[in-house]
Design goal:
The chain has 268 residues and is α/β, with parallel strands linked by helices. Helices cover 29% and strands 25% of the residues. The protein has 2 domains: 44 residues, no CATH class; 209 residues, Peptidase C15, pyroglutamyl peptidase I-like (Aminopeptidase, 3-Layer(aba) Sandwich), CATH 3.40.630.20. A 6-stranded mixed sheet has the order 5-4-6-11-7-10, with helices on both faces. A 4-stranded antiparallel sheet has the order 2-1-12-3, with no helix packed on it. It has a two-stranded antiparallel sheet with strand order 8-9. Strand 4, helix 1 and strand 5 form a beta-alpha-beta unit. The N terminus and C terminus are likely disordered.
Length: 268
Amino acid sequence: MKCVYVFSCRCLDIDFNFHAINTLPYFISRQLFVMGSEGPPAVTIHVTGFKKFHGVSENPTETIVSNLREYMKKKGMPKGLILGSCNILETAGHGAVAPLYQTLQSAINEKDSESANSRRIIWVHFGVNSGATRFAIEQQAVNEATFRCPDEMGWKPQKVPIFPADGEISRVRETSIPVEEITRTLAKKGYEVITSDDAGRFVCNYVYYHSLRFAEQNGTKSLFVHVPLFLTIDEETQMQFAASLLEFASQWPNCGWPMDNYNFLLMN
């Protein structure tokens, strides 16, 4: 004997209508399946990497981001994922911010011209940690610029607030993307990856803080990922990791967004 419940779920207004067929008297463990052709809106992901900088003559993130679109086309773009812009930033605080904001604002303008059901945007920023042996998905950025060496424009701030209006340099902004869950999923796929709460105080943290602040103000999302050198983890593995990360980030349940209208089939 089998029990099937069909119900509908509407965003935030949880009003379940059950229809039972051959109902069983006892609760049996159930699995939840999304049914029907109507699914979640597509997620557009914009990606950035960095050029060379002091001590890193060939930045792996420049290669990853430059080749990502073609790589994902060959691999097959995951359903529900739209790969937006793929830009390479100068490894310089002020040099990176201007083109970063051009990209951020351009994406917002495109979002505003589209229907409400397609307004889901994530920015994924890749940066290199030359001493790392694993990938690190960054949970947060700090309102502090303390560069260990001059950036590519010669700037070397020390304990300077990135946004003075945000107050002390200890101010933290966190991503609303479920970092730990995505990290666990990637680890199960065999990648050497950890969750990190320290993006440093160099240009990576500088860009991430700007991006998180902008995302919070505009109803979008931002994520930063540190990768090792290709000498540590080879290029093909890093390309696979980047593609998997984008897929999981776009498809993770809710991903901090409210649920839209779905039909579910709940089966015993």
